[in-house]
Amino acid sequence: MATADATATPSEAPSESVFWSWLTTVDHKRIGILYGVTAFSFFLIGGLEALIIRAQIMNPGQEVIGAETYNAMFTMHATTMIFLVIMPLGAAFFNYMIPLMIGARDVAFPRLNALSYWVFLFGAIFINLGFLPGIDAPPDGGWFGYTPLTLREYSPGPNIDFWLLGLQILGAASMMAGVNFITTIFNMRAPGMTLMRMPVFVWMVLVVQFLVVLSFPIITVGLFFLMFDRFFGTNFYVAAGGGDPLLFQHLFWLFGHPEVYILILPAMGIVSEVLPTFSRKPLFGAEFVIFSGICIGFLGFGVWSHHMFTTGLGPIADTAFSFTTMLIAIPTAVKIFNWIGTMWGGQLRFTTPMLFAIGFVLMFIIGGLSGFMHASPPIDIQQQDTYFIVAHIHYVLFGGAIFGIFSGLYYWMPKMTGRVMDERLGKLHFWLTFVAMNVTFFPMHVLGVEGMPRRTWTYASHEGWDEWNLIASLASFVLGAAQLIFVYNFFKSRTSGQLAGNDPWDAATLEWATSSPPPEHDFDREPVVTSSRPLFDQKYGDAPAPEPGVDPHIHIPPGSIWPVICGFGITLIFAGIMAMPNPLWSIAGGLIFVFSLFGWAYQPGYRFHDGGVH
Amino acid sequence: MALAISVAALAIYWLYYSFFTPYTAQTTFFPESDFARSTHSVYTFVNILMLIIFVVIEGVLVWVLFRFRKDDAKRGDPLPDQVHGNTKIEVGLTVATTLLVIVLFVPSCQQIQYAQSEGPEDALVVEVNGRQWWWEFYYPEYDLVTANEIHLPVGRTVRFNMTSSDVIHAFWIPRLGGKRDTVPGRTQHIWLTPEKVGVYDGQCAEFCGTAHALMSMQVIVDTPEDFEAWVANQKAPPDPTLIGQYFPTFAQAGCIACHTTVVNDSTTRGPVHHSQDWGPNLKKVGSRLQIASGIMDNNLENLTDWIGNPQHLKPGALMKVPAPQCLAAGDPDPCCTEEGRGNCLDDATVRTLASYMQELN
After folding, report:
1. CA torsion angle for A404, A409, A414, A416 (degrees, to 10)?
2. How far is CA A445 from the centre of its chain?
3. B318 CA to chain A: closest CA distance, Å?
4. Of A68, A102, A135, B12, which has the most beta carbons under 10 Å away?
5. What is the mean pLDDT of residues A103-116?
6. What is the mean pLDDT of chain A?
7. pTM of the model
């Protein structure tokens, strides 16, 4: 396949510097890259926090860091990995790949897309501000921030304020992106791409965006209540004032459980793309995979109280939530059967993305089985808040979500950079990660049933938890070091990797039909779709190849600085609450926000790809 | 191949620890009450089924990887059968999974009906109050307040009624039962019948702030005779010579602001809500196995260390004793130069207090 005609790449206005062009970009691919680079940086930071945690509890009675620092570390490790790593790494793929996979030129609202990124970035920085030496007040109430511990009475410092306001900012970013992607997927598909012909990854993203749009308002309300309790003396969560501390847990988990699926469904989608490609077969039972994904999305809203079996909800609630939780095992098992069915009878190529996809399935089964165990209240009340749960979430989120994301990174990196990542380094990365991950997290199951509670900064030697903690800690250092191989591989392959061409993996979906990296307008000709595997049909079937040359009527939006300004205004509205009862900072943020909307509204919406604005 | 070895290693490890988990003080294995046995039997049943499912599914998956591996497959090679799915297999597996879910659900349901019922009416009631970062216990039957250590008669059902005066904690004695969160503004319960004499460790399981890791407790299951003797000792009036010898120091040092050493009836329980300045009842502190909520053995040396500088042993501990001259100045802080140190007592006073604590047995 020939790479794209060089003249097809539209020229930026010559006066723009590189920095300015990234600052004002509204190109979904560039925003995807921004999301990816930012989130991967936080992956390294969050990983470092994890290693500090493991260093502290490597041996009993140690004091590498103090109790308060430890509490901040586990709070920010979880907050970082969930909100600043897995979600935005997913967003990186959504941004870069969704328009390509559905044959579109961009997302529905390109400037809103840029706004999502800038709000995310500002929020991510804000939530970490507490680490600064002069402030020295990192969030330390757990990523779940249970009241009353997070009320002003028990957490007087600004620690929790950074956390709760930061999450509000990040939530705004996620919801904007959610609306954008739902609109994009429903409205921007290429001719012939019916919903059932969409790649399964796109389907999973669609489900995720609905989860985002429906679940983030719930945590927003929960955090607003907390904000009012902390800043303005209300009593939403104060038992003595007629409030209810458990209300926060209900609101948090009513968001928090769909959030788990927000984290895992994109990885499931990635694996559903990678396994067929490297098995040279279509996805087995694609309809079942899609509907089971939708089913998981629906059920995800009906299971939140399984996080609260120990709060004493009563036998009826425990039974009901136990049952709905166990029901989720069914669509999840369906997915696993279909992935195995996809590989059955195929021609399996063990490339790095394939290895990570296989690793995902292997590890996710373990996370699923342990998850099923604590869907049972009798089992859960012994395991809840022990290392058994730590093991479970890491099998789901590391063995699951992160493996899926690495699979996607190795799989799509050639599309993004034009070069294939080094396979030998990739396989080394996979094997070190796979082995170190299991040695780190599997023994935590045993520590859990041996009664080791989580979120404890120290333990006594006579408890009998020494050996497995030592082994887990040592393995975690290997696991951390292994991720640097990926970083090295990325920089090495970006300049000297093998050239990818349009379609390095012999894949079936539309993103591989354009050049690597794609031109700003994505496709020279709008693709026409007749099945769920449009590119496969062109190569192995009888679908016609697209006409050569570039469509002369392409128009794409010009860059805009307004999303950055607007994002700054939104961030300042929330950050300014720290100064309460002085409202001036928030008001200033509001003014910047409104001002930027005018600038935004009066800016021309698109330009033709030749650079002219019409 | 390496994947197959990894999966086999995980399965063997899992199998081994399903049956040969070594004894540890807080293990959830080795249950010694009806409650803990009921949860453990559900665990055992589900765990074995999960292990079997693990071996079967991962086994098939690994077999598929061996059987269908073809690393030299190239673009343009003849394609394998392009199977899009098989509705019969899909429906069959879905139904099979559903049946399995129901089989797994039933024992959980039964346990919930048993363990979450109201329990027998003649149970020994123990009221539990979770505090930052210690436990207060009250026996209404004996009008007896104690802290961080519960004694129970073997074979008699006990009902724990729980609440909290500050943040949420979780009451958990793995070998006997739990866990149940202690939530401010609510009272909830579990009941269980300890079946074997012994000492059982428990620990707060819900993150509750700085010293969460150091919030333990001991449950001592006694024979009925030993239990009666324990109650009688706890309720015995204080020794006047002991009080005469030590109490002035205790009062002068400021300890009486939060602690009492002469009574342990219901009048010494703190207010229900919002009080930082109310500490463990010390009337019989010398009789307890451990101090500082289960983090150290109860002996003179540890008591001296603890009273001298609690925050050093338990970061975040709320025990703060301003020295008399600080109290006079109205601001305790300048007197405590060491960072984080709450107690500003001279060594002689600390030693006297430690001796007092030990003799309160």
Report:
1. 120
2. 25
3. 12
4. A102
5. 92
6. 92
7. 0.93
